[in-house]
Amino acid sequence: MFKRFRKTSIAVALVATAGLAGAAIAQQKTMAIGTGGTGGVYYPLGGAIANVLSKALPNTQATAEVTGGSVDNLKLIASGQSEMGFTMADAALDAFKGEDKFKSGKVPLQTLLVVYPNRMHVVTVEGTGIEKMSDLKGKRVSTGSPGSATEVMAFRVLEAAGLDKDKDMKRERLGVAESVNAIKDRKIDAFMWVGGVPTAAVTDLAATPGVKMKLIDHSDLAAKMNAKYGKLYSPSTIAKSIYPGMDKDNANTEVWNIIVTGNKMSDDDAYNIVKTLVEKKADIVAVHKEAESFSLDNQIQERSPVPFHPGALKYFKEKGIGK
Predict the structure, then answer these.
(1) Looking at residue 241, what DSSP letter applies?
(2) Number of CB atoms found within 10 A of residue 224's CB
(3) Torsion angle defined by CA atoms of residues 267, 272, 277 and 280, in that order, rounded to the nearest 10 degrees
(4) Which ranges of the chain does DSSP label H, i.e. alpha helix?
(5) What span, in angstroms and rounded, lies between the C-alpha atoms of 283 and 291?
(6) What are the pLDDT digits (tens) for 300-319?
(7) Are 262 and 77 in contact (CB under 8 A)?
(8) Which residues contact 203 (CB under 8 A, 6 or more apart)?
(9) pTM score, two decimals?
(10) CA dihedral 122, 120, 207, 245 (to 10 degrees)
(11) In sequence order, what are the residues at sequence separation of 6 or more whose Cβ sits closer than 8 angstroms to the Cβ of residue 136?
């Protein structure tokens, strides 16, 4: 009797212990953050954010995922595979409205934070004969990887320049790191990339011995793009000091980046995430200086076509930022 009772007690204790362990595991939140390719800015910034959130939020393990970029990130959120992700404002609006690459259905998005502006780089090198946008006609041009917002914006820039993306050039679909390798090997003549500055892969090209990189001006196209797609774009400048060997500032177009989530995140989680990203900004800036823009004065609805999450709005209100 005693032996049987003792075995039963041990069995009950083991079940109870297993139950407690299971509960502890259940309380551990995992959070996937969609970023972009390794040569861009989303990925290192996403890694810094994941690190900050994992350290600051109890029982939270955040990870930065390599993806094709904005469009991929929005689709991962839609399918429940990512909790949050970086996206350009134009791609987010398409997803929110169920247009362009999201005709299969609207994505119920909410903005957590307006982060920093993305500048459109139209990149070439000396010897290709490309000095202005119209010179892209008849050339080999990469317009960004499939699933990227670079592709979305590149098509709109080309359209505004009066170029047909399919008929006027031999088009490749490469990410920024692959584009840099291809232009070094003279497999393409130019590439388009929209990202923060400096973008590591573009810096690598500019610093390559024997290569003279050039950025093509196109800031005059912002008005045409906005006339068709809404007030998403604005003229901008990449200072000549940003990349090695630049002779002059580059007049380009820009669009804001936002960090979004779906419709499942609780108000408390959104509040804590946004509070952490704003208040631990210095830790993220240490990884990439574009995080300087993670500031309260950038949290205006005009920079995000997607409504802010109620949890984010609660934090902004506490800080005296009205929406």
Answers:
(1) T
(2) 16
(3) 170
(4) 2-27, 42-56, 70-78, 89-97, 149-160, 176-184, 200-206, 222-229, 267-279, 281-285, 310-318
(5) 9
(6) 998 999 999 999 999 999 99
(7) yes
(8) 243, 244
(9) 0.82
(10) 80
(11) 122, 130, 158, 161, 163, 168, 169, 189, 190
